[in-house]
Amino acid sequence: IYLHPNIGEYARKLASKLPGELKVCYFVNSGSEANDLALLIARAYTGNYDMIALRNGYHGGNASGMGLTAHHTWKFNVPHSFGVHHAITPDPYRGAFGREDADAGEKYAADVKNLIDYATPGQVAGFIAESIQGVGGVIVFPDDYLKHVYEHVRAAGGVCIADEVQAGFGRTGTHYWGFETQGVIPDIVCMAKGIGNGAPLGAVVTTPKIAAALSQRIHFNTFGGNPVVSAQGMAVLEVIEREKLQENALKIGEQLSAGLHRLKEKHNIIGDVRGKGLMLGIELVKDRATKEPAKAECAQVLEMCKEMGLLLGKGGLHGQTIRFSPPMCVSAADGDFLLEVLDRAFASL
User: Fold this and answer.
1) pTM for the complete prediction?
2) Which fold, 5-243?
3) Cα separations (Å) of 319 from 34, 222, 347?
4) Which of 72, 106, 179, 328 is 20 to 30 A from 243 (CA-CA)?
5) Band of the pLDDT at 145, cuts 50, 70, 90?
6) Alpha-carbon gap, residue 205 to 211, rounded angstroms
């Protein structure tokens, strides 16, 4: 209830990392809470209800996050998704428009315009997307996709929300925020996970004009941005800068990406290698022509890697993609170990 200096100082430091007018910070405890609050802000500010999200996206396990999410594996059979419409996944590997199509971003974005025209009143509250789809299997959007989507959404009266829970804080290597890789500035940014390096911390950052919409009613979060986690959040920002972790994400990410491409040449089960910085994925398929997901093989590789001392995650609707999002302080030696263990695991299939 009463302001502690840690909270204001942390908000100032966090806002300084964001472009444009993204200067007002609301602190919460998780990514699910952050996305829930962003949804409330979008609807309160615009006066509209309908939201556009993406198929294959993930935005949390609470009721509103489940509604925005588009994986049946994460959606319990309970009421949710009211007013949410899901556009086609801009997936260059499995989608209709591949990496060889220079206009793929614009073509995928046209589906958002079509959805607004046919499935909504023509006016929307907003659009939300992960800057790189994480749970969905590290899907990197085609160039200019978000640029065209943002134009369609803003023309329909909506705000644009970037879910940076996984891609933010320098993980892509080339940029501090994932949305910057698409050359856009959102109206609302949601963050969690890496923001606190394990501490229960999340944030929503928006513009003063949009933030004013919350003053219509009372809004409060008991533990969000408390003095302890604010201190932890400040420490994270300082360590990222002092230890040059964004630069490290770029360097080790390039090492891992090159190594994963070499493994693809060696093991036919690897259908695709993708990602940016230290947010990478390899999609496993039974056949490169049909792209049939190699779900069982993916699970088997993860178990073999675990037995050899390497912990990995998986993603994709069928659990067919191995995901790499290691701590940003990972070393070149760690990268060599990862690639060696993976090579052994694939050779054992």
Assistant:
1) 0.97
2) Aspartate Aminotransferase; domain 2 (3.40.640)
3) 26, 36, 20
4) 179
5) very high
6) 9
